[in-house]
Amino acid sequence: xxxxxxxxxxxxxxxxxxxxxxxxxxxxxxxxxxxxxxxxxxxxxxxxxxxxxxxxxxxxxxxxxxxxxxxxxxxxxxxxxxxxxxxxxxxxxxxxxxxxxxxxxxxxxxxxxxxxxxxxxxxxxxxxxxxxxxxxxxxxxxxxxxxxxxxxxxxxxxxxxxxxxxxxxxxxxxxxxxxxxxxxxxxxxxxxxxxxxxxxxxxxxxxxxxxxxxxxxxxxxxxxxxxxxxxxxxxxxxxxxxxxxxxxxxxxxxxxxxxxxxxxxxxxxxxxxxxxxxxxxxxxxxxxxxxxxxxxxxxxxxxxxxxxxxxxxxxxxxxxxxxxxxxxxxxxxxxxxxxxxxxxxxxxxxxxxxxxxxxxxxxxxxxxxxxxxxxxxxxxxxxxxxxxxxxxxxxxxxxxxxxxxxxxxxxxxxxxxxxxxxxxxxxxxxxxxxxxxxxxxxxxxxxxxxxxxxxxxxxxxxxxxxxxxxxxxxxxxxxxxxxxxxxxxxxxxxxxxxxxxxxxxxxxxxxxxxxxxxxxxxxxxxxxxxxxxxxxxxxxxxxxxxxxxxxxxxxxxxxxxxxxxxxxxxxxxxxxxxxxxxxxxxxxxxxxxxxxxxxxxxxxxxxxxxxxxxxxxxxxxxxxxxxxxxxxxxxxxxxxxxxxxxxxxxxxxxxxxxxxxxxxxxxxxxxxxxxxxxxxxxxxxxxxxxxxxxxxxxxxxxxxxxxxxxxxxxxxxxxxxxxxxxxxxxxxxxxxxxxxxxxxxxxxxxxxxxxxxxxxxxxxxxxxxxxxxxxxxxxxxxxxxxxxxxxxxxxxxxxxxxxxxxxxxxxxxxxxxxxxxxxxxxxxxxxxxxxxxxxxxx
Length: 842
Hints:
- It is a single chain.
- By secondary structure, this protein is of the alpha/beta class.
- The chain is 31% helix and 21% strand.
- Strand 11 (168-172), helix 5 (184-195) and strand 12 (200-203) form a beta-alpha-beta unit.
- The protein is globular, with a radius of gyration of 30 Å.
- Residues 406-410 and 832-842 have low confidence and may be disordered.
């Protein structure tokens, strides 16, 4: 029997793949007819094709699948059961599957056909967009770009446009971004993040039309409020419309607003014709997410196999989980269950907002606060896999615990019917049984066997928990792989890099990993390389590995400006240097604040001002305070015996010694320290990663403390130490922590998880139980001897300085969206939104 699949996008590819896997008897001969010259590729990752030159093609089908590319089907003869292509080829079928997908919706506005107007759907669209932007930056430097549509794909398009060097505006007709997935609060928080990345958002403001310039190409976008945006490129990403024209032409029923009408088996009114994916209207709805489209493909594959065998199939499409998690421009965004349920559905909502950290969390629960209905996460979506798994089920803890990570479920605790991978409709029991029956021991094997985690990847953390629980139950050692690209923990990667002398991420992943890396392993390896003294963090490939703040050697603030924090060891500063800081703050109009770590922070610097500010500070003898890095921040101190009548040791001198020794030391997480001159503990040393308190005989050393959301008192490590002993033990403590801690693990949680605890740590650091103390001493000596100030090096290097611009195509132009108002005689950021943004820009 012959099945013809019309369309070779992700859904068509999945259908053929499923059919070939299950049709062991070879009952079906498969022909695929595709409109594009390319075979199927991952449309979800289109932006990475532009920004990273990523390879998107799916694996090729086996040789028994006949492929026709670049020759779309032009007509269907239902009576003769024949399709005819545009080139005149006729192909007969016993079953026909329409997987024609969708087309971008372009509103019928004036100017929609002007040169410089694009859609964002195919690789060809992206190639044309890239070429146009390259010409635009040459012919019209400073010309902006507009993306029409603030949904998932629209924001991806905006990221791509900005990556091509074009200042970007997003126009969304709804009052907030991603209105199909996020509530108003989540949309507002997402907007703050996006505007902090130098993008302009116009929400609740429909587009009125496009206007041409003197060259006949698009030059301006007019908005309904009367304002206009200068634009040399416009990208429409305002939704999709089902590609149902073939069905219409051959008389198959279609929906009032488009879509080929199908039943729960995805079959049309013609028993020989099915429709799957974005072209299908099932249950009155067209689905635009990959998960339901793949589910339809699975249903049709089962139906075709039953048809060939002469039997029946109960496979049916029963709707889909529309939960989604993605990272938009570095911001985690997730929506799960029903995020819009309200009191009329008997639902309550629990909301947490942290505007400083840019975090918004909302849970929708039943009226007894026990059953999870849905939710929204913006800025921190770590709990998404677990929360999504509990949709419709009773939470294992309180909603408050769920919001703040207290309900982190072990893989073995999830109910068997819990859908873990909504993209591929894989439940917990299927994963568990596959692990047991097939002897699976790693994530790639689980992906290959079950498909869980093989699409969007958001469920991989939960899949790993299930795998770890099953392996532990079977007495098998659990892998501590940092991510799917490396089969090693962070500590193991550290040793590989150190022992083999590896100096680049590319070298490491080529020799010891797989794939291209991710936002977990890249910053981790970047930190490891920096810890081992691999040169300036903005040199060559290393620059691309860094976290957001390290890209500009400064902390990004809520309005897109940055903070400047010069190092002030021990809080001790001369009047001359104090005057320089005051002059810099005055001349650049910065907000100034004395911090709890005995430093002076300067806030409100635009990115292009950072080198100018630091040039003056460096000339005055200041250096980077590393407030932006996972490194030593400060060593706080009291005035000690020099001034205080209670002081028994010179705490200021010791604090300065320690801060200058460990400055620039890159670590798995930030490091804080303090030195108190007596037992009265004015410097609060016992709440630090390593703290020192003076005694009559020397110094007591405390380790493993921290403040924050989960405070921990430091543990007393050693007593009455001499200066030399104190420094030697801190050297080894820090080096052992850097070698063995997990990514983003503070010393407090590292010490709690360390097998053998504090006693074992003493044996390693003091008694040299592992025989590595000489190595750790030498490593710290190398760090101290090779230290160079990152900002001094940056301002002396033209290549590094070239990155400090608000707009790559207009280097001298400040960001017009950065606006301040006065409060207590200092500046305060104003987040400008909507039509006021254009007023501020003018």
